[in-house]
């Protein structure tokens, strides 16, 4: 007897209505087979309501802790500091949680245990990176080194806690400057709005303590550039991607598109990639 696939429409709630959340909501409102926009959350409800005025189907604007009530999938597109406000109630009620603030997940890894206990699930989309499938596959064997070099325009790093704590100025640079070198865990802590890619890479591979990161502020570029170098028993590879920044210079245009692709993969009859 062939295995049957139960087709149903999944409701999606979006926590955060900034550049990424709004892009995702607009795409869902235009229509994706198998997915419906159910609710959003925003700090400025009036602004969010105005932004949804042109939607085909405007949805409720709810507090972060209530998003799980309306949907099977909750997508976190909010500042890292409010991850638990979205995640805990969603996972406690067995929902699928898509996390874009992957760096914050490293500091709140007990959420994985919560998901396991309550039948929830945490998904981390590829985001602005590339090659996570290859890293995850290599991790099934033995990886000896994962190193990432991130270069961003100075504006994309401005305000990072690590820079403030160490008195590093990037606003008047005339040449590239390495502003950080350390582990993925340290990078996620010091640059919570800038290098979620480092956390995703670490989780796909050998973990946040063994994955090493360099971060450069480069006034000569206008894109966010990430280069990954991996040494493993199954393969040696390097990859580089240049992402166009979004309206928020701390993130790239590819990030919301990656979330859309990950959502579509959940309901598609054909899924490509690991």
Task: Set out the fold topology.
Elements: E1 10-15, H1 19-30, E2 35-41, H2 45-51, E3 73-76, H3 83-92, E4 96-99, H4 102-107, H5 110-118, E5 121-123, H6 132-138, E6 143-152, H7 161-165, E7 177-183, H8 184-190, H9 196-204, E8 212-217, E9 224-232, E10 236-243, H10 254-267
Parallel strand pairs: 1-2, 1-3, 3-4, 4-5, 6-8
Antiparallel strand pairs: 6-9, 7-8, 9-10
Helix pairs in contact: 1-10, 3-5, 8-9
Note down, in words, how this protein is organized:
There is one protein chain. The chain has 274 residues and is α/β, with parallel strands linked by helices. It has two domains: 10-127 and 254-267, Rossmann fold, CATH 3.40.50.720; 132-243, Dihydrodipicolinate Reductase, domain 2. Helix content is 31%, strand content 23%. It has helices at 19-30, 45-51, 83-92, 102-107, 110-118, 132-138, 161-165, 184-190, 196-204, 254-267; strands at residues 10-15, 35-41, 73-76, 96-99, 121-123, 143-152, 177-183, 212-217, 224-232, 236-243. Strands 2-1-3-4-5 form a five-stranded parallel beta sheet, with helices on both faces. The protein has a five-stranded mixed beta sheet with strand order 7-8-6-9-10. α1 packs across α10 (254-267), α3 packs parallel to α5 (110-118) and α8 (184-190) runs antiparallel to α9. The longest helix is centred in the C-terminal third of the chain and has 14 residues, at 254-267. It is globular, with a radius of gyration of 19 Å. The two termini are 26 Å apart. The model is unreliable at 1-6 (pLDDT under 50).
- From the spread of the alpha carbons, the general shape counts as globular
Strand content: 15-25%
Would you tell me which CATH topology of the largest domain applies? Rossmann fold
Number of domains: 2
- Count of helix runs: 10
Strand order of the largest sheet: 2-1-3-4-5
What Rg do the Cα atoms give? 19 Å
The largest sheet is: 5 strands, parallel
Query: Mind telling me the CATH class of the largest domain?
Result: Alpha Beta
How many DSSP E strands? 10
Poorly predicted tracts of residues: 1-6
CATH homologous superfamily designation of the largest domain: NAD(P)-binding Rossmann-like Domain
SSE-based structural type = alpha/beta
């Amino acid at each position: 007897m062939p295995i049957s696939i139960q087709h149903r429409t999944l409701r999606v709630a979006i926590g955060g209505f900034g550049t990424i959340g709004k892009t995702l909501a607009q795409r869902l409102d235009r229509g994706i087979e198998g997915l419906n926009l159910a609710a959003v959350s925003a700090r400025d409800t009036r602004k969010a309501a105005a932004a949804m005025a042109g939607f085909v189907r405007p949805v409720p604007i709810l507090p972060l802790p209530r998003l799980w009530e309306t949907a099977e999938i909750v997508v976190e597109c909010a500042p890292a500091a409010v991850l638990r406000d979205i995640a805990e109630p969603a996972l406690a009620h067995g929902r699928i949680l898509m996390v874009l603030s992957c760096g914050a997940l490293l500091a709140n890894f007990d959420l994985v245990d919560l998901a396991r206990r309550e039948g929830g699930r945490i998904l981390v989309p590829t985001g602005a990176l590339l090659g996570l499938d290859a890293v995850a596959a290599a991790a099934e064997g033995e990886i000896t080194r994962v190193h990432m070099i991130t270069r961003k325009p100075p504006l994309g790093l401005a305000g990072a806690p690590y820079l403030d704590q160490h008195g590093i100025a990037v606003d008047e640079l005339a040449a590239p400057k390495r502003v950080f070198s350390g582990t993925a865990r340290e990078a996620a802590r010091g640059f919570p709005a800038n290098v979620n890619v480092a956390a995703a890479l670490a989780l796909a591979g050998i973990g946040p303590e063994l994955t090493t990161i360099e971060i450069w502020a480069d006034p000569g570029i206008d894109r966010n550039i990430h280069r990954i170098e991996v040494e493993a028993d199954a393969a040696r590879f390097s990859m580089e991607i240049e992402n166009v920044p979004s309206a928020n210079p701390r993130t790239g245009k590819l990030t919301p598109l990656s979330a859309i692709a990950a959502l579509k993969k959940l309901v598609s009859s054909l899924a490509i990639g690991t």
